[in-house]
Amino acid sequence: MKRLICYTDIEEAHTKGENYLIINDDTIVTPLAKDLIEEYELEVRYEQASYEEEESLGLNFSKETLIELLRKVLTEGTELASNFEYEAHENGLKVIKGDTVRLEKMATGESVYSQQLVSEGATNAGIVEMKETSVDRVLENNEINYVSSGSLTIQIDGKEYQAKAGDTIYIPKKSCITWSVPEQANLFYVTCPTN
Fold first, then answer.
1. What is the phi/psi pair of residue 131, to 5°?
2. Which residues face 133 on adjacent strands?
3. Highest mean pLDDT among 29-33, 62-66, 87-91, 105-109
4. What pLDDT is attached to residue 48?
């Protein structure tokens, strides 16, 4: 089974005073985690992946068991699930437990953290937290943002627009914008493609 190491895992290791990380061929390290490993100058130790444990478990699955496992992976996701807890129905409905969501630092800014919560086809949804920062963005898809707390300024084509808690922002695909956050802002976003 693959092991996922993300930004928050490296933050926790650093906070605990750990100065090295052990990985193998079955370890997936996110790009943000790699950046933080370099920043904290953590030593990375490689070890050979052991398949003995996997073999001893017996890999004889019935067709029904394999289908159920695949259905669970497809409806519950893999990488996203490690940063929050949720309940899921077999039809895809999800209840994400907000108090379990762990945000990861984004490469776009010093004080920008986010977590994608839903990824269904080309539609994504998640949360972003920004503190005292300014971020330039070019949108690949249409995007809707709900400001859940704080305030921010959106700059586009030399004009500025203010948004505060309770406001909803719609940004068309291919827009070049700048978010400016003097103090803090939390957003819930949904991206959706155009036809």
1. -135, 125
2. 181
3. 87-91
4. 67
47 CA to centre of own chain: 27
Q: Are the C-beta atoms of residues 114 and 104 closer than 8 Å to each other?
A: yes
pTM of the model: 0.57
Range with lowest mean pLDDT among 70-84, 92-106, 113-127, 171-185: 70-84
Structure tokens at 171: 């940004």
Q: How confident is the model at residue 54 (pLDDT cuts 50, 70, 90)?
A: very low
As a dihedral over the C-alpha atoms of residue 76, residue 78, residue 83, residue 84, rounded to 10 degrees, the angle is: 10
Q: Diameter of the chain by CA atoms?
A: 64
Which H or E run includes 9?
A: helix 7-15
With a CB cutoff of 8 Å and minimum separation 6, the contacts of 182 are 132, 151, 153
Distance of CA 18 to the CA centre of its chain: 24
Which amino acid is it at 120? Answer: E
Classify residue 69 by burial, with Cβ atoms within 10 Å: 0-12, 13-18, 19+.
Answer: exposed
Nearest-CA neighbor of 85 among 99, 72, 73? 99
Cα(147)–Cα(130) distance, rounded to whole angstroms?
Answer: 11
Contacts of 151 (CB under 8 A, 6+ apart): 162, 163, 164, 165, 181, 182, 183, 185
